[in-house]
Write a structure and sequence with these properties.
- This protein is 49% helix and 16% strand.
- The chain is α+β, with helices and mostly antiparallel strands.
- The strands form five sheets. It has a four-stranded antiparallel beta sheet.
- β12 and β13 form a beta hairpin.
């Protein structure tokens, strides 16, 4: 996952500008940074771009926001050291500097966006539309307040993002992707090959005599580092979780029943109704409409009469909680199927509602979910107890007690891991798979020392894990006697690999000389197999991934060889057919390739433009301030 995150965040443009280009403005605001980053010049800055300064405090806030975002994506908190490994501070400062450079250029060019245009953009944003498909101010206020914006700050941020988008489009525009590039990409992804092959294994290597003591000793001496014992740490763990405490909490039937009644939506589907509504400009028009309905005019005919299309009146199948207008919701959910309400004074005007269809509520019976409810209630009640327990443990640690002593005093389970290496394996090489969920305990244990009091790690479930390193066994060379079996096994594997490599090379040479594949294979007691429809980068068992890659570097009719699924296997093959897919630039797939290439070219072009801007405007990075922030220093 971490490698994927690095790749996804390698281009600031891919995370920022292009998000704005495709119109996801709300996401773009978060990516471009939600702070007023150009207000309030300070003496302590992280970066200076022309006349714009990014202060330490502004960068620190953005940095902390980014850590929380990454933590949510990974489902665990990350430490500053882990953030540094991901390159988060470097990515963030690069992003903020690029944004500032673009804004500086926009100011130099005199680019402006009127208040009316900003308002139009907001009104047309699908994010802020209500059930009627029109702009809904309540929805707008809910979304921006949840994102931490005031209306003024949101409008200002939209102005900045829109100008950045316009500038990016002016640079990249609708740069078309070369057809030859799209054709090459299509062939790379979709070309198929057919191969005849055999798989060589240890059986084809023949008998390998046991090594003499002298041979084994020499082999070991030349490869001691491969058998070196890693550093091990002895770690004491004390963990508490809501689940641990919940097991001691009794939940009565009355409490469970009350919880069931208060959270009915969790245990079934609420009643839903297919509702149509006509919103009239005033009460008089609504009253006239109600009279026409009473005299036999259909709801659809009345809607057409007042200029409403079917899409304008249809709210679809909705639950009562889905309707923003409470008055209309109450009226509509009080009607029978097919019923029409009297005029209702609603939030958006006087409204008449029509119930087309009713889908009844579907609930799982209490008896079926009672066990789950008791568990959920116990977990909720356990959370305050966890915090009390946390305080008690911290008090005892502050009093000088070790984790073992704290566990004994408070009757909590304490676990001692006798030895664990950096990969999370014990001294026998077995992966420790039963560690408490949450922060990376092993990584944290290797970032501290014996006698250091460490802050507890918080788990996603709301619990805590305390850890102390109580012993360190340094990495050291092992003697041959300690690892003789492993050394001999590796030596034998190397011998098998060498023999198979030589045999595979000999088979390839015989195939090149014109010997039929069946005859070459029969000499080693093998039968030639065939595989068609092989694609680059796709599994093609029993061929290994290396063999598939090699087959796409080999001409039709030519032989080749590659390592199999392990060093003690070799795949020998002949490419028997190459199928080049037809390319249609106008097909959905062809358009996808062209769009992907166009986007990549636009990104690259704009990145170069921004780099030039930063150089022309003048950019200075305060690396010391950056290090203080990413290192968690409180110094300003």
């Amino acid at each position: 996952m971490l490698r994927g995150m690095r790749k996804a965040s390698a281009s600031w443009l891919g995370k920022g500008i292009m998000a704005a280009v495709v119109g996801f403005l709300i996401l773009a605001f978060g990516v471009w940074g939600i702070g007023d980053i150009f207000r309030g010049y300070g003496h302590s800055t992280v970066a200076t771009i022309g006349g714009t300064e990014i202060s330490i405090e502004q960068f620190r806030q953005s940095y902390n926001d980014r850590l929380q975002q990454v933590g949510r994506e990974l489902h665990r908190p990350i430490t500053p050291a882990q953030a540094h490994d991901l390159g988060i501070e470097a990515q963030l400062v690069s992003q903020l500097v690029a944004e500032a450079a673009i804004d500086e250029k926009a100011r130099q060019m005199g680019l402006r966006l009127s208040n009316a245009e900003v308002g139009r953009l907001i009104m047309n944003d699908p994010t802020f539309r209500g059930p009627t498909g029109q702009f809904d101010r309540q929805q707008f206020e809910y979304v921006i307040h949840n994102a931490g914006y005031s209306e003024a700050r949101f409008a200002a941020e939209q102005r900045r993002v829109t100008l950045r988008r316009e500038l990016s489009m002016a640079v990249g525009g609708d740069l078309p992707a070369p057809k030859a590039a799209a054709l090459a990409l299509d062939r790379f992804e979709n070309e198929q090959r057919s191969v005849d092959f055999v798989v060589l294994g240890p059986a084809q290597a023949g008998d390998i005599p046991a090594p003499t003591p002298e041979v084994l000793a020499k082999y070991f001496d030349e490869r001691k580092v491969l058998f070196r014992a890693p550093e091990y740490r002895k770690v004491v763990l004390l963990s508490v979780s809501p689940a641990d405490v919940a097991g001691t909490i009794e939940v009565s039937d009355a409490d469970a029943r009350r919880y069931y009644d208060e959270h009915r939506a969790r245990y079934g589907t609420p009643e839903r109704r297919h509702i149509e509504q006509i919103v009239f400009p005033n009460a008089e028009a609504a009253k006239s409409g109600a009279e026409k309905l009473a005299n036999g005019t259909s709801f659809e005919a009345l809607a057409a009469e007042v200029g409403k299309k079917p899409a304008d009146i249809d709210l679809g199948l909705v639950a009562k909680s889905d309707l923003i207008d409470r008055a209309v919701a109450d009226a509509a959910f009080a009607l029978p199927e097919g019923g029409v309400s009297a005029p209702v004074s609603g939030r958006f005007g006087t409204t008449i509602a029509h119930v087309v269809k009713i889908e009844p509520e579907k609930m799982r019976p209490f008896e079926e979910v009672a066990g789950d409810i008791r568990h959920d209630v116990a977990l909720e009640r356990a959370k305050p107890a966890i915090q009390n327990l946390y305080d008690k443990i911290e008090d005892e640690r502050a009093g000088g007690l070790s984790l073992e002593e704290v566990g004994k005093k408070l009757k909590l389970n304490v676990r001692t891991i006798e030895a664990v290496d950096r990969s999370g394996r014990d001294s026998a090489g077995t992966l420790l798979a039963d560690l408490p969920a949450g922060g990376d305990i092993v990584a944290n244990a290797f970032s501290t020392d014996v006698g250091v009091e460490n802050d507890p790690l918080q788990t996603p479930a709301g619990g805590y894990v305390w850890y102390d390193v109580v012993g360190i066994t340094p990495s050291h060379d092992r003697s041959l006697d300690e690892v003789k079996d492993k050394v001999e096994a590796r030596w034998r594997d190397d011998q098998v690999a060498a023999r198979l490599g030589a045999k595979a090379a000999d088979m390839v040479e015989r195939l090149k000389a014109g010997t039929p594949f069946a005859d070459v294979a029969a000499a080693d007691g093998l039968k030639v197999e065939s595989k068609s429809g092989v694609q680059r980068g796709h599994p093609a068992e029993p061929l290994s991934g290396r063999a598939v890659d090699a087959a796409f570097r080999t001409a039709k009719g030519a032989p080749g060889a590659a390592e199999g699924h392990s060093p003690t296997e070799r795949d020998v093959f002949v490419v028997t057919d190459v199928t080049v897919p037809p390319f249609n630039a106008g097909s959905p797939q062809g358009q996808r390739y062209s769009e992907g290439l166009r986007r990549a070219m636009t990104e690259e072009l704009f990145e170069q433009y921004v780099t030039r801007l930063e150089n022309d405007i003048g950019t200075t990075i305060n690396q010391d301030a950056l290090n203080r922030i990413s290192g968690g220093s409180s110094e300003q």
